[in-house]
Structure formats: C-alpha cells, structure tokens
Design goal:
Largest interface: A-B, 63 and 63 residues
Distance between the termini of chain A: 37 Å
Largest sheet of chain A: 2 strands, antiparallel
CATH superfamily of one domain in chain A: Winged helix-like DNA-binding domain superfamily/Winged helix DNA-binding domain
Protein name (chains A, B): Transcriptional regulator, BadM/Rrf2 family
Number of helices of chain A: 6
Shape of chain A: elongated
Radius of gyration of chain A: 19 Å
Oligomer: homodimer
CATH class of one domain in chain A: Mainly Alpha
Structural class of chain A: mainly alpha
GO molecular function, one term (chains A, B): DNA-binding transcription factor activity
Order of helices and strands of chain A: HHHEEHHH
Strand order of the largest sheet of chain A: 1-2
Pfam families (chains A, B): Rrf2 (PF02082)
Organism (chains A, B): Domibacillus enclensis
Strand content of chain A: under 5%
Helix content of chain A: 40-55%
Number of strands of chain A: 2
CATH architecture of one domain in chain A: Orthogonal Bundle
DNA sequence: TTTGATTGTCACTAAAATGGTGACAAATGG
DNA sequence: CCATTTGTCACCATTTTAGTGACAATCAAA
C-alpha cells in the first residue's frame, strides 16, 4: 500500500509546537528533531496552516496551534496532510457488458467506504493530547 | 495517500472465479471484464495463488478458489495483494537528543497500530460472499 | 535603519510504486 | 502436432514522495 510519512511528521510538528515556547521552534530546529530538511517541515506546516490547525507568518519564528491539543484529533491532522484521503481506489471503466463488471463499482464503493469510515473513526478517537500523554513527562518542557 | 487498485481488481477477479464455470474465465476474458491488460490479471492471480486463495497452472484455462466465498474475507485478499500492508510509515531516525524525537516513534507506533487494526477488523468482517450478494442476482450466472 | 535570521514558495532531483505492454518458454488439451 | 493459455520477465510512462538549493518577503533586534 502506498504510504508516506507525512502524518507522522505532521504529528511530530504539532507535538513540538504544543510542548515548547514559540521562540525555540524554528523550522530549522524542528527539522533537527524530526531529522529531515527544513523545507519539508515548512511544506507540511503550510498544509497544517491551510487547514487552520496553526498560524505562522514569514519572518516570524515558529508557529502557534489554534486549538487546545485535546481539541485536535488525529483525523484533523490526517485530513490536513492528505489531499487524497482515500485508502483504496477502484479500477476505472469495468466492462458494462459483463454482469460483474457492470455492478462491481457500486459494491466496492460501499465496501471501501465502510473500511475508510472505520479507519477515520479510530483517527478521530485519538487527540493530539493523547499522543503527548504517551510521551514521557520529561518531553513536555 | 498513495493508493492502488490491486485490492479492487483482486476482488473483481475472485468474484468472477466464484460466479463462472472455469472454462470461461481465461485471463484474457477477465481482463475484458476488468478493462485492463491480461498480464495485470495474471500478476494479481499470482499473488492470490501464493496466498493460497486460488489454484491455477500454466496452459490450463482459468483458476479455482480454494475455499467457499463465505470463508474468504476481504482481509485475506488485502494481505495477499499488499506485501507492505502498513497504512502509515513513521519517519526514520528522529533526533534522540530531543525529548520528543526520542519518544515519538513508540507513541506513533501504538497510535498507528490501533488505526491499522480498526481497518483490518472491518476488512475481516466482510466476506467475498458479502460482496457477491451486493451484486444483482443476475450477475451470478 | 540596517542587518541577520526566518518563513513561504518555487523548481529540480532521485527513488519508489504502479499499471500497461510486448515477448516467450512451458504446459495443456484437442 | 498445434493452437491456446499461463507464468514470468523486462521495459516503459506516470505519479508520488522526500530531499535540496535558491530567493523574495518579512520580521526582529541592534
């Protein structure tokens, strides 16, 4: 399955922002914690900003969460960083002359929607605060 | 999210095999129903065969399911066609000198495992027969 | 105001995944 | 024997992803 690490990095960024004073969390500094390039951090921050999860501006170090970590779900973050949030795709144009081909798309659509919903509900059930609580108390500076 | 259509095509193949006499379901014929190249069908059939979901052999038209459709779950098919079945990946080597970087991986691992489990349980709850029942009776020849 | 640091964004790259395609040996069955 | 089919390989174009350098615009501190 095609997978990327954007959700993981986005959560990492959000935890850093929630756990540290603004002046300390430059994209360079976050890149050091995540172990990647600062541009990757800014790119993902841009998606989180467009989704309204944080505010930041050119020239000003760091960013700020717009909500309390307990009011931000992992589904919020997932949808922010995954423009195409569909888990599975259905093959195009199955043969309408075949009884199976003619009806398979709607059946698969129902099926895949249920799977997608199950995944999203689990993401919705976990908040950013929940993730932070899994880190040792020392990580919350 | 990067997504492929292998699960959709694999389910389509399995439905065709379950619904038609063996002599009629050549890879060429199935390719016609799915609307793709016969090699794509054979490639996915190869994965299903390795997973023990069907039997087929060179020179012999078609394939046969090894189990009753009601005993085959969509999770079985998913695992057959997705060698890397992990939904999300975690970024490599976060900085151990950072309190967040040091602990984020295990937290994300717990989190992502719960999401993955939710998805797999939903896939496990649906059988191939369930999908076939969603198609019109006419499609079961 | 000047200077240095930072963000936002662009363009480019390499790597990987995916699906389509042609080719062909091996096996099947008439 | 011979036409058909499977299993498999190699190759290709497309897409996605993450890393990187570059740079204008902005900010903040001296």
């Amino acid at each position: 399955m095609m997978i990327n690490s954007r959700l993981a990095v986005a959560i990492h960024i959000m935890v850093l922002l929630a756990s540290n004073p603004r002046e300390t969390v430059s994209s360079e500094w976050m890149a050091g914690s995540v172990n990647t390039n600062p541009v990757v951090i800014r790119r993902i921050m841009g998606m989180l900003r467009k989704a309204g999860l944080l505010t930041s501006s050119a020239g000003k170090t760091g960013a700020e969460l717009t909500k309390d970590p307990s009011d931000i779900t992992l589904l919020d973050i997932f949808k922010a960083v995954e423009p195409k949030d569909e888990l599975f795709s259905i093959h195009e144009k199955p043969n309408p002359a075949c009884p199976v081909g003619r009806n398979i798309q709607s059946a698969l659509d129902l099926t895949f929607t249920r799977v997608q919903t199950a995944m999203e509900e689990e993401l919705r059930s976990q908040s950013l605060q929940d993730v932070m609580n899994m880190l040792s108390p020392k990580s919350i500076q």
